[in-house]
Amino acid sequence: MIRDIRQLANDYVNKRNLIFGFLTGVALLMAYPPLRELLRSTTQSEYYSHIILIPVVSIFFFYLNRKEIFSNSKNSYGPGGALLGIGIALYFLGMSQRGEWSPNDTTAINTFSALIFWTGAFIFCFGIKAFRKAMFPILFLIFMIPIPEVLMYEIIYFLQVGSAEFAHLLFLVTGIPFAREGFVFHLPGMSIEVAHQCSGIRSSLGLLITGILAGYLFLKAGWRRVILALFVFPITVFKNSIRIVTLSALGVYVDERFITQSFLHRSGGFLFYIPALLLLGVVLWWLRRSEQR
Fold first, then answer.
1. What are the domain boundaries of the chain?
2. In whole angstroms, how far apart are CA 165 and each of 149, 185, 266?
C-alpha cells in the first residue's frame, strides 16, 4: 500500500516535471530567435551584452534555494493558466507588429511574452507558494528584456544631462577654462560634446544589476535595497563626468589625440567603472551597517 502511494507520488512528480519542461521549451522557442538576431546586430548588441548572463544568475539562485522553493509545491491551475494565455496573446501581438515596430521593440514584446508564459508555466506546475519563494530569480529575468526604444532614448538623454551638469561642476572645480553651449564644451584649442555615447547606458545597466544582486544578498530591508539601486544614477553620471573631464584635461594639456584616438577614449571605460563599483560598495557598506544597528 505504502509502496503504491509512493509510486503514484513519483509518477505525479515526473509528469509535472515533464509538463514544465515542455512549457519551458515553448518559452525558449518564443524568446530565443528574436534575442539571437538582436544580439547579432552591431548597433544594438553593445547595449545588451549582459543578457546572456541573466539566466545563468537566475538558475544559480534557483539551485541555491531549490529545497525551499520546491518543498510542498502544489499546482495552481487558475493563475498559471491565465498567465500562459496572456503570454501567448502578447507573443502573437508582437508577431503581428513585426513590420510596424523596430526589431528592438519586437524583441522586447516577444521576450516579455515568453517570460510571462514561463512564469505561468512555473505557477501552473508548482503553485503560488513556490513562486513567492522563487520571486527574486524569476523577476531577475526581467533584465533579459530589451529596453523599448522610446524609453531607451529618454534614459540616455537623462544620463547625458546628468553627465553634462556634473562635468560642468568639475570643470569649475579644476579651473579648466571653458564655455558651454548645451552639451558642447568649448575648451582651449578644441570643443567636446557630451554625446549619447557618453551617457554610460551600459555601465548604468551593469551597476544596476550589480546593485540589485548585492542588495538581495547583503540587505534585508526592501527600502534599503531600493536606496542602493537609486544610487546607481548619481554614481553613473559622476563616473561619466570624471571620464569626460579627465580626457578633456589630457587633450588640452598633454595631447589632443587623447580625445579622439587614445585607448582611454575608445576602450577605457572599464578603468572608470572600477571606482564606480567601489562607490557602490561604500553605499552598500553604509546601508548594511545601519541595518545591523
1. 2-143, 151-292
2. 24, 11, 22
Instruction: Count, in order, helices (H) and strands (E) of the chain.
Output: 14, 3
Angle at 70 between CA 65 and CA 73, to 5 degrees: 150
Per residue of the chain (293 residues), give pLDDT as tens.
555 455 544 555 678 889 999 999 999 999 888 888 877 765 565 677 788 889 999 999 999 998 898 887 888 889 999 999 999 999 998 888 877 888 888 888 999 999 999 999 999 999 999 999 999 999 999 999 988 888 888 888 888 888 889 889 988 888 888 888 888 888 887 888 887 776 677 878 888 999 999 999 999 888 999 999 999 889 988 888 888 888 888 877 876 766 666 655 555 566 778 888 899 999 999 999 888 77
For the CA atoms of 231, 195, 51, 119, what is the dihedral angle to 10 degrees?
A: 70
- 3-class SS at 190? strand
Q: Give the closest residue to 66 by CA, choosing from 124, 139, 20, 126.
A: 126
The helix-helix angle for 269-292 and 201-218 (nearest 10°) equals 30
CA nearest neighbour of 151 among 108, 88, 181: 108
- Identify the DSSP state of 30: H
Q: Distance between CA 209 and CA 217 in Å, rounded?
A: 12
Rounded to two decimals, what is the model's pTM? Answer: 0.83
Distance CA 272, CA 275 (A): 6
Radius of gyration of the chain (CA): 24
